[in-house]
Amino acid sequence: MSEGAGALKYIRRTGKRIASARLDPFVVARVRFVLFIAALMCLALAFYYADDWFVREFATYDWARDLGF
Amino acid sequence: MGLIFAISADSPGLIVFTGYSLVISTMLMVITLSSPLIRLPVQVLSFGTHRLGIFRKLPGGWHAEIPRTSGVSCALNCQACELAWVGCPVGMLQRFAIDHRFPFYILGVFLIFGVTLGRTVCGWLCPFGLILDCVNKACTHRYEPPNWLRVFKYIYVIGVVVLAILTAFVFYCRYFCFGAVLGIFPYWLTWYTVSWMWLIYHLGVFAAYITLSYYTHGRAWCRYFCPLGAMLSLFAPFSLIKVKHDWKWCTDCKECVRICPMGVDPRKQNLMFRMECINCGRCISMCKTGSLQFSSPFTLDTPSKSPTPEGVEA
Q1: Interchain pair A39, B108: CB under 8 A
Q2: ipTM above 0.85 for this complex
Q3: CATH number 3.40.50 is the correct assignment for the domain at B243-295
């Protein structure tokens, strides 16, 4: 019981610490750049290799039928 | 213009162009005008843009030759209805999960929107954000749920994907989505094939969320439930647009905290604020001293208003 309460207290404290953390602008800029490159790579893969831009269900009404229409 | 967009929906290149031009134009509007006053027109425009399929219904009957939705928006909008022009990312994510495909496309779109706009999408582009902002005006704000409940939306998004894989079915859209009413109701109006049971069920789901919002906050859905908001909030701390606070002019009146629809403190500028802030700009318009302003790589670090630090020596 006390272990459970202790774990809960630890989770709560860690959550508060993460929520109140302030990000370094230098790190933010670097991460943003990495994410942007990752975004372009994902879109390139989706468009040129996986052909994901078009979802078959949109052209038909499978989507609506799935919702019980 | 809308018809051109609707017709262009069968070309992936044009989808990318129109989709990301929307992002860029919104960014420019936020950057250049820096005024929360233009948010409502942008929201209305975005609402209309998501429903461009209406052009297939209007002149001279039904134009089935105009393609149905393809591509994906980054805002919550039900794609099941006839008026939808772009897909919902949450629905698409479930589709990819059902098909056991890696969602490169969804991830790419989320990253692009996340890195550029962050949760500005929730505040400026989401069609349901417009509805919730209207609800917010009537809210009682009687109950203040604890902040840790915000974690629920992350559990929710995991649940959405897991349920889709387990059931091989868009489980979330069918039973839980607040946005499904935006799909089912126009579909019922145009095709009359929706059973009354489903119409009433989705209206009930919608009413339940609205009731929750009524007693708590207009943006209760965005705070505690929205899977889209949860995914965007992961990238929001790295977005180009943000609200900056300057203690130099701040009188600590806490009006910005009181007015914030997301219940965060703009003065703290911490991770929680960065993840939850929807850049609606209400705090900026409320701040009398100009200590809060929109910030982006293209704006100057000067207060947006003439600072009048009453009671505080500059």
Answers
A1: yes
A2: no
A3: no
